[in-house]
Sequence to fold (444 residues):
Amino acid sequence: MHRFLSEPRVAHYTRAFGSTTVKAAVDDVLRETRAAASRGAEPPPFADLVARVSGRLASLEDDGLVPVLNATGVLLHTNLGRAPLAAEALAAAAAIAGGYSNLEFDLEAGTRGSRYARVTPLVVAATGAADALVVNNCAAAVLLALDTFARGREVVVARGDLIEIGGGFRLPDVLARSGATLVEVGTANKVRLGDFERALGPNTALILRTHASNFRIEGFTAAVAPADLAALGRRAGVAVLEDLGSGAIADLADFGLPHERTVGEAVADGIDLVAFSGDKLLGGPQAGIVAGSKSAIARMRANPLLRALRVDKATLAALAATLALSIEPGGLRKIPLYALLGATPDELERRARALAAGLGDAVRACPSDAYAGGGTAPLAKLASWAVVVRPPDGATKLARRLRRARPRTIGRIEGDEVLLDLRCVPPDRDAELREVLSAALSLG
Ligand SMILES: *Cc1c(COP(=O)(O)O)cnc(C)c1O
Fold:
């Protein structure tokens, strides 16, 4: 064992996987070798055994969670981990997660404190809400709100709002799971305030409004202004929950996208509880944030289910740092999502042309459409530029070679071409992208 562990090709993996995993790989190889020897096989030389151990560990490394270069043009790609974190958020998470902290400790009193004490004022400052709560993701936030308010009671929802988002999250199913009874109002395309008014009764617990995150209803439509819905709820003494999902904190119109309803607007409309994700348009870690009124948040905070949905210290630290950037003057562009959104088409064109130059006839720079993704402004195209490759051996093969390259590079296949969209690629990764592409082309 000791001889194996002092071999550089094996020792190298101790850092990545820890010694237990490395020793287990050595044990496996030795056991196999002894078993083979007992069947009369010639024992292989030591160098071969080292190669077997390091090969086994290398394949473990391939199976692990690895960084990828996102050249899909989809900024908030759920399959690729949604929002990249700001340097400030990473530093905060490292400082807190790498040691002990005052996570649930009041430094003044020397007694137990609240896990949410430091992040709440930041959500309040970023949204204008009176109070806030943070859980694991937006789906958990909606579930907690329904469980708190609507178990065994009725939730009024417009038929056009009964959505399914990615990952099989269907609102009617979540409602059923939370023990609430769904009361549908209006039609698929039209709903009026009177529809909601007539549906309210003694057993109504909540009015629920959702963000049409991944579709649009267009044409012959009618909807109720959120402020009118909030006013109706107040008159009737029924809380209004809005599942906002993407949770814009800034005006996306400043970044060439259509305006997207912001959390601040929902709060200003008088919505009692606004639920949104931390890793969509806030550009932070995975989290579910509820911004709302003091009384509604207090009820959610008292729900024992909160304990099962609570967030980790690293997430809280990263979230707090991201929220701080979102409200600090000039801070927004330090959030990678907004730095990427802020790149001008001219810059992207220049980079695409420089990348494509000298890579042969199969490669050219072209305008491209990028997307926000993550259930945000689904139809809105963001002007972008891409390096477009028409490989002689087909787009599927080149895309596979790019996925297998280091860094693993994910493009977009359109017909018989592979597009490497630069909208999600930070400029300081261009040299790597060019190297990966040039190597993948020469292998073809
Ligand atoms: C994305 C989204 C959710 C789920 O958010 P997660 O943080 O992924 O759980 C819920 N509702 C809407 C409207 C969404 O867009």
